[in-house]
Amino acid sequence: MLTKRIIPCLDVTGGRVVKGVSFVQLKDAGDPVELGSFYSSEGADELVFLDITASSDARDIMVEVVERVSRVVFIPFMVGGGLRNIDDMRRILEAGADKVAINTAAVYNPQLIADGAAKFGSQCIVVAIDAKRLETKKESGGKLGFDSGSKWEVYIYGGLEPTGMDAVKWAKEAVKLGAGELLVTSMDCDGHQMGYDLELTRTISEAVEVPVIASGGAGNLEHLYEAIVIGKADAVLAASIFHYGKYSIREAKLYLAQKGIPVRL
Question: Is 147 known to be catalytic?
């Protein structure tokens, strides 16, 4: 079995790392260069850098900040936010990123996924899906106690604009177009530290054949375990529990290893 990855996330705006609740109520969490260096040395498997207001502010991603972070990070480095075309992807990869994450631009122009995969390889192209649960009729007896018929809507522009697109259908389409990985964030769970949306994560994980990163809701180490075992995630992304010192990367990995999850120690 492949090792499962622990991925801290740097949500960046105005040159600072922030953390919010359901994509709002943002609070300062530190300097991206310092945090990137810390997580790289602490043993994180990967680092995600998201310029969360680039798309909604209609501006370019902060390339100079990405470059500064990349100089101190010696683990795989994924960058997203405000990437609109192949040239943007190339600039970020040249600035030190190993992967690019696209959301809003991919929704507006799905061909960008295919073009990016053709130019840089599918392993470089991550489609980020920000999803919010739609109200559905409650029915008992669903798999693992999940509600049957649950659906989630894709949001863009940093969670500000609904698209009317079904998240699971979009996940399948993105992979068909060439996405090598999916970053799936539950807007409902994000920042609440009450656990991931396991149904969302599992539904998408079972629907595609590429790695899925679970995002949004980690509050303790058990939540990471649940996302991997119940949600079938290949990696777990977390911010609050690491940024504010609740747990260390090593503590998370030791916990998962003790529970029988293969991790890189």
Answer: no
Long-range contacts of 248-254 (CB under 8 A, 24+ apart): 248/42, 249/6, 249/8, 249/39, 249/42, 249/43, 249/44, 250/42, 250/43, 251/221, 252/6, 252/221, 252/224, 253/6, 253/43
Catalytic pick among 45, 88, 130, 190: 130
Residues pairing with 173 in the sheet: none
Which helix (H) or strand (E) element contains residue 162?
Answer: strand 161-166
Label residue 258 exposed, middle or buried (CB < 10 Å: 0-12, 13-18, 19+): exposed
- DSSP assigned state of 123: G
pTM score = 0.90
Task: List pLDDT tens digits, range 225-263.
Answer: 999 999 999 999 999 899 888 999 999 999 999 999 999
**Rounded Cα distance, 127 and 80, in Å:** 9
Place of tokens 């995969």: 117
CB contact at 8 A, 251 and 265: no
Distance from C-alpha of 45 to C-alpha of 28, rounded to nearest angstrom: 24
Residues in Cβ contact with 112 at an 8 Å cutoff, skipping those fewer than 6 apart: 85, 86, 102, 105, 106
What are the tens digits of pLDDT across the range 126-173? Answer: 999 999 999 764 444 444 455 557 899 999 998 899 999 999 999 999
171-209: pLDDT as tens digits: 999 999 999 999 999 999 998 999 999 999 999 999 999
The SS3 of residue 145 is helix
130 is catalytic: yes
